[in-house]
Amino acid sequence: MKSKQNNKRAQVRSARFFDILDKLIISGLVILVLAFIFYPILCVILRGVNVEGSFSLKVYQEVFTKNQKLLWNSAYVAIITALLSTVLAVGIATVVVFSGRLKGFLMGVLLVSMVSPPFITSLSYIQLFGRRGSITHGLLGLSLDPYGPIGVIIMQTIFFASLNALLLIGMMEKVDQNLLQAAADLGSDNNDTYFQVVLPLTLPGVIVCFLLSFVRSLADYGTPVVIGGRYENLSTEIYMQLIGYANLEKSAALNTLLLVPAIVVFILYRLLMSKGNRLLQGGTPLKEEEMQHYRPRGLVYGLLLLPTVIFYGMMLLQYGSIFVNSFSKQQKGVRTFSLEPFLQMWSRRKDTFFRSLVYALVVALVGTLIGMLISYYIERRKLKGGKFFDFLVTAPYMIPGSCFGIGYILAFNSEPIKLTGTAAIVILNMIFKQLSITTKVTSAAFTQIPEELDMASADLGAKRLQTLKDVLLPNLRSSFAVGFVNNFTSAMVTAGAVIFLVNAGQKIAVFTLFDAINSGKYAEASMISTVLILVTVLINVIFLRLLKGKGGESHVSGIKGY
């Protein structure tokens, strides 16, 4: 009798413990999101209208009257880049999806772009087509000026096209095979099927690619700084106002200008992606071996194939030049194999690689767990205000990185939470910048797990957290893998959001790359890029192998813009 009473008391204590823990987790997640997402963004908005302690729109008036050229430069480059990168991405995605056996290789090249440092495209552009470039000067004997808006447009187009193509590939692969077969049965040829079935179904994704590329171009400071030359835009002005002049008010006002189109694009993005998912939902995707039967033919495919071949040629040249320059030196016009770039880099920069690795591992583990918990409470527990909460979680991914970085300076530069100059502010910024990727992937996974499992677990006496631990998490291995890989990769190569947060004595590897490029040390910059890529790929492969060994899924899709 006493044994039964003791067991009952133990069960009651256990139930109370899980109830208390559940409330603590919910409260903790809400506090974290409000403190490290909402508050920093609010600080940026308020700082732009706070002049000498009082409300004023003086800074915004100066921004509009004295920076019209910057506004025009940013809009001009962003529109052209968005248009070119979207059109190019449609061609790449089409060729990859219908390429048959080459699909694995083509996807691999695209996925490498996800683990590449943000300045690598600009670095290879200088090495290949600069005044002393391997192609322009070495092969053609020309001395061209690679700097200016044209160079910025070319580099941004190439970089954004690979990200857009990954998104469109995912959508094209979901097109219902029954629709393609029905079109063929009705006498439609492959080209008609492509234009009347495939493209209309993926049109929301195409528009999303244009919008995302537009915002990314506005917020990109790395490419204009390295390639722009005398060309200036809003993002470079933000960098100069904060780093050069320590003018927080003006940099906050400029960031708020970038914040407005980012929010508009975010709203349109949610609507368009929701529409795209409805159009593609419930279909039966084609098997890879059947894809080639529906490939566009003739001139249409040629027009899609030509820019795609040029793009992949540029990608191979880009990574090939980086690798070659990593292990060579040039004297009197003769290039020879050398380990000197590696030895120089390792002797002076190895601490930055170890620091980046530690930061990235912490961000990957903590960020993934937080993202999965947020998704659980929004999707499974139907948290009150879940839509607004989801909006806050997604906002950092959509807004310019400089805006989120400056927000952390304004929010955590004084008591009671003073974090500036510490590793914590960098890690926290990285975690919450990429948090939405994990939440979106996990939310999608929850739709595939029947809620009856939760009910059955509850009927057997399990509390909600026990159900999460013992029932749901084992079915979320793939989501955990995608979140971990994305968070780790982003933390290793991120630049925009944390450039204002990294202490001079605690630099991470990506900023030593930036310094090497600006100093003209291209061989050392190439070596830093090579090591960053190899380390990132190696850690991701090891992690996925370990997860697979524990019964996890072996296939993890690359996600950049979900």
Summarize the structure.
This protein is mainly alpha-helical. 74% of the residues lie in helices and 3% in strands. Strands 1-2 form a two-stranded antiparallel ribbon.
What does this molecule look like?
By secondary structure, the chain is an all-alpha fold. It is built from 24 helices and six strands. It has helices spanning 2-48, 58-66, 68-97, 103-112, 120-129, 134-139, 149-172, 177-185, 190-219, 222-227, 234-244, 248-280, 288-291, 298-326, 340-380, 386-398, 401-411, 423-433, 435-446, 452-459, 464-472, 477-493, 509-518, 522-549, and strands spanning 50-51, 54-55, 328-331, 334-337, 413-414, 417-418. The strands form three sheets. It has a two-stranded antiparallel sheet. A two-stranded antiparallel ribbon has the order 3-4. A hairpin with a 2-residue loop joins strand 5 (413-414) and strand 6 (417-418).
Record the SSE blueprint:
Layout: H1 2-48, E1 50-51, E2 54-55, H2 58-66, H3 68-97, H4 103-112, H5 120-129, H6 134-139, H7 149-172, H8 177-185, H9 190-219, H10 222-227, H11 234-244, H12 248-280, H13 288-291, H14 298-326, E3 328-331, E4 334-337, H15 340-380, H16 386-398, H17 401-411, E5 413-414, E6 417-418, H18 423-433, H19 435-446, H20 452-459, H21 464-472, H22 477-493, H23 509-518, H24 522-549
Antiparallel strand pairs: 1-2, 3-4, 5-6
Helix pairs in contact: 1-12, 1-16, 1-17, 3-7, 3-9, 3-14, 5-14, 5-24, 7-9, 8-9, 9-12, 11-12, 12-17, 14-24, 15-16, 15-18, 15-19, 15-22, 15-24, 16-19, 19-22, 20-21, 22-24, 23-24
